[in-house]
């Protein structure tokens, strides 16, 4: 063999190794991006779940008479109240908050509470008071992309 063939084999080997290294690096980067997305999603779920867990401890309605539940148009908190002062489940309606998580940045939280039908699939009813309310908590990232929406249905039970 002449001297050029060894040089060509070496260059060809380096090109193949570089291509494989580039593919491996691309795969590692994609996996890292998926891992980061899952971390954002897990944190968003935790934020939404904490609001739902807090709200589910509150009474169904300020008036515990099924014939006189709060009208949908009256849902929500008075302007002077903070989340710590919410007294009933429907006080969370139209609640918004910006939550900062250490290194992950900010999450925007929006809460909606609606009366829903008493039977599955629990569709929203307009203007009618029912024995069930659904809370939907939507958590968005800084770019206004919805990351997660969790729902919880609270039922009224007479004793």
Going by helix content, strand content and strand pairing, the class is alpha+beta
What oligomeric state do the depicted chains represent? Answer: single chain
Q: What string, H for helix and E for strand, traces the elements in order?
A: HEEEE
Unreliably modeled segments: none
- Rg from Cα: 27 Å
Averaged pLDDT: 84
Number of strands: 4
Give the overall shape, derived from the CA principal axes.
elongated
Q: Give the helix proportion (percent range).
A: 25-40%
Structural domain tally: 1
Number of DSSP helical runs: 1
Q: Biggest sheet: strands, sense, closure?
A: 4 strands, antiparallel
Strand arrangement, major sheet: 1-2-3-4
Beta-strand percentage range: 15-25%
Kindly report how far apart the N and C termini lie: 97 Å
SSE arrangement:
Elements (H helix, E strand, L loop, with lengths): L2 H53 L40 E6 L3 E11 L16 E9 L5 E10 L4
Antiparallel strand pairs: 1-2, 2-3, 3-4
Q: How would you sum up this structure, described in words?
A:
- By secondary structure, the chain is of the alpha+beta class.
- It has one domain (3-155).
- Helix content is 33%, strand content 23%.
- It has one helix and four strands; from the N terminus they run αββββ.
- It has a four-stranded antiparallel β-sheet, covered by helices on one side.
- The termini are far apart.
């Amino acid at each position: 063999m002449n001297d050029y063939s060894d040089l060509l084999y070496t260059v060809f080997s380096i090109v193949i190794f570089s291509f494989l290294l580039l593919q491996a690096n691309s795969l590692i980067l994609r996996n890292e991006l998926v891992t980061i997305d899952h971390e954002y999603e897990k944190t968003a779920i935790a934020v939404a779940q904490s609001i739902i867990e807090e709200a589910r401890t509150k009474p169904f309605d300020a008036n515990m008479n099924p014939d006189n539940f709060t009208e949908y148009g009256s849902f929500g908190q008075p302007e002077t109240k903070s989340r710590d002062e919410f007294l009933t489940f429907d006080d969370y309606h139209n609640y918004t908050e910006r939550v900062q998580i250490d290194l992950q940045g900010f999450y925007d939280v929006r809460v909606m509470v609606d009366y829903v039908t008493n039977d599955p699939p629990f569709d929203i009813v307009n203007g009618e008071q029912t024995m069930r309310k659904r809370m939907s908590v939507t958590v968005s990232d800084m770019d206004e992309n919805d990351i997660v929406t969790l729902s919880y249905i609270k039922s009224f039970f007479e004793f």
